[in-house]
C-alpha cells in the first residue's frame, strides 16, 4: 500500500536553484565540490539508463552512477530509457537508495541516447513517453518530474508537446528553452516564457515550472524571477563552468579556486579506490578552476600534460 511521502518540491524556496544534470560532469565528486563552494537548493544525478538497471550485467554500473554523498541531499535521480517496465523496476528501487524524487529525461539531445529511443526522442513518441511516466509514477512514492526541450526540430512544437506532458500533471517540469536540433548553439528562447507560463497555469497549475538554458548564476536567476514571478525554479548548467560558486553571490579568489581543485583531486583519489575512473576525465574540469586569472592559461596547459594525481599536486603547489 502506498503512503504519502513528503514532497521535496513543496519544501523548496521560491525561486529555487538546481545544478543541471550533465553527463560526465555532475557525478558524485563534482556535486561534492559544488556543495563545498555553495550548494544549490537541489541536486540532480547524471542520467541513468533504466534498461541498464534492469539487467544483471548493467546494474553494477547503474548503481555506481546512482551513488550519493551525504552533502548531496536533497537529490533527484534522473533516469532515461524507452521501456516502461524498466522504468517501473528502477523507480521501485530509488527511494531505498536515498533519493527525494525521480526525474524522467525526455530532452537529452545526445545522438546515441536518441538512437536508443530515449531522451529527446520521446518528443517524437509522446504515447510511449506518457506510458513511461505513468509506470514510473505508479511504482514509487517519490514525486516524479520531467525534464524536456521545446521540441525536436521546431520551437513551435512546444505548443503540442508541453500540453501532453502537463496533462499527466508531473510534480515539476523543467523546460530547456531550445529544441533538440538547436543543442546549445543558439540563445535560449526566453521570448516564449509568457506562453509557457500560460500553458502551465491553464493545464496543470500545481506543477512546478523550472527553466533551463543560459542561466548564468544566482543573480541572473533572481533577475529573471523578478520579471517572471510565476517561474518556480531555475536550473544552471554551463554557468557552473564559468564559476563553481554560481549558486552564491561570492566571487572566488585564485586561492579559493585552487583549494576547490585540490578537493576535487582528493575526491577522485577516494573514488578511484572503489571504481575505475580514467584520470583523463578529470582534465575536463581543470578549466572550471583555472580561468580568468593571470597565468591561468599556462598553468592549465601544464596540468593537461599530467598523467597522475601526484603530478597534478606538484604543479598546483609548486
Number of strands: 8
Any idea of the CATH class of the largest domain? Alpha Beta
Poorly predicted ranges (pLDDT <50, ≥5 residues)?
Answer: none
Shape: globular
Largest sheet: 8 strands, parallel, barrel
CATH superfamily placement of the largest domain:
Aldolase class I
CATH-level-2 architecture of the largest domain: Alpha-Beta Barrel
Order of helices and strands: EHEHHEHEHHEHEHEHEHHHHH
Task: Tally the helices.
Answer: 14
Estimate what percentage of residues fall within beta strands.
Answer: 5-15%
Number of separate domains: 2
What average pLDDT do the residues reach? Answer: 94
Please compute the radius of gyration using only Cα atoms.
20 Å
- Could you tell me the CATH topology label of the largest domain: TIM Barrel
Instruction: Give the strand line-up of the largest sheet.
Output: 1-2-3-4-5-6-7-8
Give the % helix.
40-55%
**How far do the termini sit from each other?**
60 Å
Structural account:
With 318 residues, the chain is α/β, with parallel strands linked by helices. It folds into 2 domains: 8-242, Aldolase class I (TIM Barrel, Alpha-Beta Barrel), CATH 3.20.20; 254-316. The protein contains 14 helices and 8 strands. It has helices at residues 28-38, 50-53, 56-65, 84-94, 111-115, 126-138, 158-166, 193-203, 218-227, 239-242, 254-272, 286-289, 296-304, 309-316; strands at 16-19, 42-49, 75-80, 101-106, 144-149, 172-176, 208-212, 233-236. The chain has an 8-stranded parallel β-barrel with strand order 1-2-3-4-5-6-7-8, surrounded by 4 helices. Helix 1 (28-38) links the parallel strand 1 and strand 2 (42-49). Helix 7 packs parallel to helix 8 (193-203) and helix 11 (254-272) packs antiparallel against helix 14 (309-316). The longest helix has 19 residues, at 254-272. The model has no long low-confidence stretch (mean pLDDT 94).
